[in-house]
Design a protein that fits this description.
The protein is an all-alpha fold and 141 residues long. Helix 1 packs across helix 3 and helix 3 runs antiparallel to helix 6. The two termini are 29 Å apart.
Length: 141
């Protein structure tokens, strides 16, 4: 297998993972923020509310750390990208994505679900592929 095909397969797997993890991404983002706060050993949520005459750099360091954290930025970008694509998608595409990517287990086969929606398999596949292409564009933007 050539390098180009390996990259293509890796990218397809990555986009699939982004979609599958979308329902849990809000939780991942909150957990990452907590991790960053825990690294500073900040126990008080309102740690920046101290005396008005004190120089408290903890708040600034925490905010800078949130803005500079690459993992947090990546999670937020992925979450926003999927959300934007879902908002722009038509109802059929949303139903297909919901059934086969956002739910843990689907009770339907792809062909049967497409028929239930009065689409043939090619139309359904085309809608999903178009959605994934839009997601890819949104992620590299």
């Amino acid at each position: 297998m050539t390098n180009r095909h390996q990259r293509k397969r890796k990218n397809a797997y990555f986009k699939h993972n982004v979609l599958v993890e979308y329902p849990k991404m809000k939780q991942y983002i909150l957990e990452r923020k907590e991790e960053l706060r825990a690294k500073k050993h900040i126990e008080d949520e309102n740690f920046w509310i101290k005396g008005s005459n004190k120089n408290n750099f903890e708040a600034e360091n925490y905010i800078i750390k949130l803005e500079q954290d690459k993992r947090l930025a990546k999670l937020e970008k992925q979450y926003i990208a999927v959300r934007n694509c879902l908002e722009r998608a038509d109802d059929d595409t949303k139903a297909l994505i919901q059934e086969f990517y956002l739910q843990e287990h689907s009770a339907w086969s792809f062909h049967a679900f497409a028929e239930k929606m009065c689409l043939n398999k090619n139309q359904a596949t085309s809608k999903v592929n178009k959605f994934i292409d839009e997601l890819e564009y949104e992620l590299i933007r």
